[in-house]
Amino acid sequence: MPVAASAEAEVLGMLTFSPEDGRIWFNHRRVMMLDTVSFATLRDSLIRNLGPRAARRLLTQVGYQSGVGDAQMLRTDYPDDYRERSRIGTRFHSVAGIAKVEPITTVFRPKDGYFSGEFIWRHTVEDDAHIQTQGLGTEPACWMELGYATGYLSTICDQLIVFREFECRSMGSVVCRVAGKPASEWGDVNEDLFYLGLAAAAPAATRSPATEPAAVAVAPDTSTDVVGESAALKSALTLVKKVAPTRATVLITGESGAGKELIARVVHRESPRAAKPFVAINCAAIPENLIESELFGVARGGFTGAVQSRPGRFERAEGGTLFLDEVGTLSLAAQVKLLRALQEQEVERVGGTATVKVDVRIVAATNVALRDAVGRGEFREDLFYRLNVFPIHLPPLRERRDDIPALIAHFLRRFRALHGKSASRLTSRAMQALLNYRFPGNIRELENLMERALILADGDCIDLTHLTSDGHALESSFYRFDANGMIVSDREHQAAAVAASASESQLAAWASQVLDACAQGRTTSLASLENDMFGALADAALARSGGNVAAAARLLGVKRHQLEYRLKPREARPSS
Asked: Average pLDDT over the chain, rounded to whole?
């Protein structure tokens, strides 16, 4: 029982609600709540339009990919003992409302990745949906669950573990019975592979899907820097793929620290200019009196101290890409000279008389609204239109929260190697805080947080205290389940935990005083002892349940009216 309770609490800790921006996360991935009537309608539509066999294949693959994703996340969070902890996978579907999983027999050898077992599935949502629209039949209908179990255990065990269903409520059975074991022990698994979407590559199908990276790189295949899973990031990268092969000027907009330079590097890397230089200049970091010489170069004797000629960034980027970061900070005088260089495709070094033809692709970035700056007279309109040929907007991290888990995994891998540290995962509350933090500094702030937290962490786990060590609390507003299955805000949960700890300490102190009194021979009324003990227990139960009387009564094993009756005399007592 303690093990089961611990696993249940651990899985509940993976479920996070953020009603402020309409998001829910489970196991670090965004999820949504879908009622069974809507799911049944969707399932019925797939069966009617695709046919039962194609619909089964599609839903089995959806379940398979979900199982692979959960197992990969477990491998990332617990790289040293992910197989030992994989047993919590039976709780995932219970918490998600998919089914209640009850093991009958299991043989699991974590060291060599062997698994076989039989299970009972109760209250499966797929059966409810199938029976509602199709009625009872002769074939099992828990297609997604089978795919999930196969994907999850195959990833955990580094070999293909195939699950099959032998009894199903959709066939008239009371419960569903399934069995899973290595593909080699089933004999012919071609039909299983077909439904899993692995039949086309049967020889490679027995490879573990765990060989896929846990933090998926959604940039082009050659990129290992731009990581994330959000729709906003994928949309930006889709634009990158379209514009990269062309010669068009690109303007990347977004807040500071959102990753604009990384996007610029992907544009260069995916362009025909990839073999040529990528030259970057931060316009905000160059003094105004030097920006012209930095961009266009210096001719020998052009000014005092110019003892030799020096090429500027335009010439150094010949044939390649010139990245102008924070272009909105350029002075009006510098904007005029930049505009001429862009129009004429030639530059003139400071102090020189000869012009130099340049073949340079311009990618600019800004964290200010250039169109508004044009309206204020701070940025030239003609230069704005010259730069704004192909705009790409990169949203801030607070609008790309789905990228946070992948970025965390990416930074932890990098900094573990850099600093020789061992921490490889975050506690549930630390991950929840980061998922809901607004990140005013965007990805750069997350990167710095991860580096500092990794250095501070002594073991293999990063906790909330490691993220707030500089005295700055991660302000967030999110909700989760408490010990009684009630949804509470994180602040309420923390307050209840503190109060419960204090009340339990008071109970321990009171019990110690009673024992001392008994040892000294002082007589004490048994009824008085019982009342005092119940009062202390009631205080602790109320604190632990956040003041919820019904939940406190359940903790004490009494009826709500009984608890309220016992509390009334205490409330009527005059305060001392």
From this structure: 81
CATH number where 565 lies: 1.10.10
| Boundary-marking domain end, from 395, 418, 445 | 395
pLDDT at residue 200, rounded to an integer:
44
How many domains, in total, are found in the chain?
3
**Whether the Cβ atoms of residue 506 and residue 445 lie closer than 8 Å to each other:** no
- The length of the chain, given as a count of residues: 576
Enclosing H/E stretch for 130: helix 125-134
Give the integer Cα–Cα distance in Å for 10 and 492. Answer: 19
Contact 455, 464 (CB under 8 A): no
- Partnered with residue 164 across adjacent β-strands are 179
CATH code assigned at 359: 3.40.50.300
Helices (H) and strands (E) in the chain, counts: 25, 20
Domain co-membership, 354 together with 258 = yes
Residues 152 and 289 in one domain: no
CA 171, chain centre distance (Å) = 38
Q: Are residues 58 and 190 in the same domain?
A: yes
- Boundary (domain end) residue, out of 363, 395, 427: 395
Give the C-alpha separation, 102 to 119, whole Å: 6
Domain residues for the domain of 263 are 231-395
Give the residue, 201 or 81, on which the prediction is more confident. Answer: 81
pLDDT for position 500? 53
Same domain, 69 and 204: yes
For 346-410, what is the HEC assignment?
Answer: EEECECCCCEEECCCEEEEEECCCHHHHHHCCCCCHHHHHHHCCEEEECCCHHHCHHHHHHHHHH
Examine the pLDDT at 168 and tell me if it is beyond 80.
yes
Of 417, 427, 329, 326, which Cα lies nearest the Cα of 367? 326
Q: Which helix (H) or strand (E) holds 462?
A: strand 461-462
- Indicate the helix (H) or strand (E) that contains 102: strand 100-109
d(CA 127, CA 121): 10
The per-residue pLDDT for range 66-90, each reduced to its tens digit, is: 999 888 877 777 776 777 777 777 7
Write the pLDDT tens digit of every residue in 282-307: 999 998 888 888 999 888 765 556 56
